[in-house]
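Re: the pair you flagged

First of the two:
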Amino acid sequence: MVEQKTKALNKYYRKQVWSCFKEFFKLPKIVITLFSIWALNTIVHFLNDKTYLMISIITIIIFFQFYHLIRLKIRIKRRFKRTDKKWLFENSILQLRGIIHFLNIGVWGQVLFKPDRVWNSTSELMVSICIILYLLISYISIKIVPEKLKMKVLKEYSEYNLL
């Protein structure tokens, strides 16, 4: 029973991430998205040593994700100590928010940090697009969807608000 609810919750979470992600490609958010891609591409284009920029960006992303992951873990532990109740959606958010996105960093690192990498305008643009899209997915899965999921749980289980 718990396994089925976990699967359903994970499916719901992924659908919410995808639907929020698609919203960034509608007006007015697409303007911000395209501007972000253009700005990062311009920065990458004018830098001589692009590797340090990529290392800095990925380090910031990892720090941001770890910070929110640890913060959520502490909040879950405190709530469990106070109430002696575990909430399935909090554990699902903890799993989906952290692990999935960290796995992709290893793949990116190998592509971005090759010492013999030749940077041309196409590769700069592709890297800029990938980084901005990755940042969007991370932001959505860390900030937007957990709040939507929390509101859904509050509607269904009013005792969650009392905890």
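Second of the two:
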Amino acid sequence: MTKMNLIFLIILSKLFLVSFGEPTDGFIEVALTDENFEIQKPYDNPLEKRYSFENGTHRVWVYADDKPYDPNSLTQPHTEIRIQGLDYWLGLWQFEGSVFVPNGT
């Protein structure tokens, strides 16, 4: 390795180390209200059979034989929480959440 290559690698490694910050750098926390949440669930089930919110935790249930959220939809069974009013086209987003899928489901 030549002296010039070594200098280049040292400079490159310093740039590499200082260019990375915390994953949340540049983001601001946005509080969500009930109006920001749209729950899509099977059209033939009441909301409480597929969704709950207790102690700060949103829970959804999906079963293999569930119907789509709309009788005319071609989507597969799903229950989802959609964030509305703060759409992605406004800029870059980062979402933080935890997901638990029980074994055998």
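The longest strand covers residues 37-40.

-B.
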